[in-house]
DNA mismatch repair protein MutL (Chryseobacterium herbae), 598 residues
Amino acid sequence: MSDIIQLLPDHVANQIAAGEVVQRPASIVKELLENAIDADASKIELIIRDAGKNLIQVVDDGKGMSETDARMAFERHATSKIKGTEDIFKISTKGFRGEALASIAAVSQVELRTKQNDAKIGTNIYIEGGVFQFQDPIQTVEGSNFLVKNLFYNVPARRKFLKNNNVEFRHVIDEFQRVALAHENLEFSLFHDDEAVFRLRKGSQMQRIVDVFGRKLQPQLIPIKEDIIWCKLHGFVAKPEGAKKSRGEQFLFVNGRYFRSPYFNKAVQEAFEGLLLPGYVPTFFLYLEMDPEKIDVNIHPQKTEVKFEDEHLIFALLRSTIKRSLGIYNVSPSLDFDKDPEMDAMMNKPFPSKGNGGGGVIKMPEIIVDKDYNPFIEERNVRPEEIQNLTEMYHQNMTAEPSKINLFEDEDFDEDLMRLPNGYWLFNKGDVTLMLDLGRMHRLVVSENNKTSRKNNINVNPNSHALLFSLEYHMNEIEKSKYNSFKKFLPELGFDMKIAHESVLRIDALPEGLKETQAMKFLENLFEILEYKTEEEFMQFYLNQWNKMHSKSRFDFIYKKDAEQVIKDFTALGFPEFLPDGKRCFYEVPFNDFKNKF
């Protein structure tokens, strides 16, 4: 029987390795930015075309490479970061395994122009599909200039799985932000299709966060700081009003490296216990500094996971430090550990007498409660015959036939509707009694009315009302990118808005039905739900948000006339039991089960 195991050619092996390192354009962005940082660059430019599918270019003013190093950098497992096995466990740089450039070159056309600080001339290398083409001397500036063109041009199956440009570019922005937030002492720029997206100057951590996410976040940030022997923690958390339903603005860094950790996220969430609405998560930017030998960054191909030697201690450190900061800034109540212990002793000391009266002891006031008091029992004697009459009336009511009133013919709801203290309503419908969630029923009515309007080519909100004073919404760069993707839909929906200057969105008119007080929250929801969604889906998301904003909750229905109208509208839809998302609109009250309780 012949042998069947063989060595793969280098270009095939490189393409397979590229599958781990290069998942999309954002993967290349991460690797090239980190290489520029390792080269001690102080200024880094990222230039993108077609969301990185056709061009990813990173220009830095770092140390550059010699002619030999430039050629060796594209060989597999060639690296300047480690020399022995022991070096793997004390990594202080970003890239170190020597796989990235070889993998990138295997699935694209790569050009490198580089020059060392003390060199008179630089070098230019061109590699196509992992095959070396040429290396020539060139006149160029100090530093490195990487150009990655036509990603996956030689692997069409991989290229077709890339998402549209909006989605891919948002992944690029994610990677850019993670690197930029970890290195506030460096200058970063991002250009997409010749348009400047970010121009980040050097500054403090607070300045970098505000430059990336907008000025509106600054008043919400609370500083976090703890310095112990084996670990330093610093950064910021946002106040509860800065919490979101998405996990977009949650950043953890260790030694300048971004990483993901659901376990540490839980520590932050627990620190906010009791302060956030259900379903909301806190916004935070937290930085850990510790001995590199105490962590392992080599457990994930994209190096986004980190293994800690003492993760339980770090969990406790995060939770306690954040809790303390929230208390210091009066976001949550905190215990007063500085209370004078002599105060308690004073409470039991005798106080001097005044006049002829004797002295006494200070005592806390006592509250006397009559545990037998019942507000529903009148202070009078109840005769036995009255108890007998009440008992007979109860049995008659329980055994009586249920009423069969046709509500919509007689239009008499008085006998058939009753509001409960928890916001639900009891409703006699034929032979059964239903418990209604009028909020969910109203949401479905609003949604179906909007669908009908759109089927008849009628705009949901065709009219708009001009504002006496314009509103201003301060966008961050991600929101600005999203706005540009869906702004073409806004005029027909009744909005009149435009970018006035820099990243300030000026709003001059709103659609009918949208109040000025609702406008900012409505826009925030639109920007949030469009994360990694295509612009074609915008209208559906818009309608969902519109329906939510114009739907009432069950607690909003207090008067019977409002409840009657919702029930009539809901009946016209066929009285469906469930919403499209599977939530129940009503529940049949099992009165027969109640009999067994007595």
